[in-house]
Amino acid sequence: MSLKSLVQLFAEKFLTSKKSWLYQNSIALKNDPITVFSGSTGISERNYTAPSNGMALVSFRKASAEDISCFVGVNGIRRQQLHNLKQGWEADATVYLSKGDLLHVATGGSNPEISKLIFYPTP
C-alpha cells in the first residue's frame, strides 16, 4: 500500500469519526423555533424528544425562597447543572440535540421552577 493510499484512508476515517463533532460545533438554526412551553408554572421535571437535529433552550426562574439546583441531561447523561439558584434569579441552559435524543430537565428542590423550553431545529 502506498503512502498516498494510507494518508487517504486516514483522512477518510478521521472525517467520518468527526461528523458529529462538526455538527455540534457548527450548527445553523431555523428562525421558527418550537415552543414546547413558555411562562408555565408548576413544572419541576420534563422530558422532550428532539424531532430533528437542533438546539434546546431551557430557562429556570427562581421565585421561591428555597435555593435549588437545576439539571439538564441528554439520553441519561447529565450535560449541565446549575447549583444553588437564588430567589429572584433566572438562568438559561442550551444543549445541542440529534434527532431522537431524549432531553430531561429537572430541578433539585420540590419547587417547580422550569419556566421555558424552546427547541430550535436545524434547516
Counted by DSSP, the helix tally is 2
Gap between N and C termini, in Å? 41 Å
Poorly predicted residue ranges: none
Structural class label: alpha+beta
The major β-sheet equals: 4 strands, antiparallel
Round the Cα radius of gyration to an integer and report it.
19 Å
Q: Beta-strand percentage?
A: over 45%
The pLDDT mean sits at 81
N-to-C SSE string, H for helix and E for strand: HHEEEEEEEE
Overall 3D shape: elongated
Number of strands: 8
**Helical content, roughly?**
10-25%
Strand order of the largest sheet: 1-8-3-6
How would you concisely characterize the structure shown here?
The chain contains 2 helices and 8 strands. It is an alpha+beta fold.
Map the helices and strands.
Elements: H1 3-17, H2 19-25, E1 34-38, E2 45-49, E3 54-61, E4 68-74, E5 77-85, E6 90-97, E7 102-107, E8 114-121
Architecture overview:
The chain starts with a helix and ends with a strand. The chain has a 4-stranded antiparallel sheet, with no helix packed on it. With 123 residues, the protein is of the alpha+beta class. It is 18% helix and 46% strand. The mean pLDDT is 81.
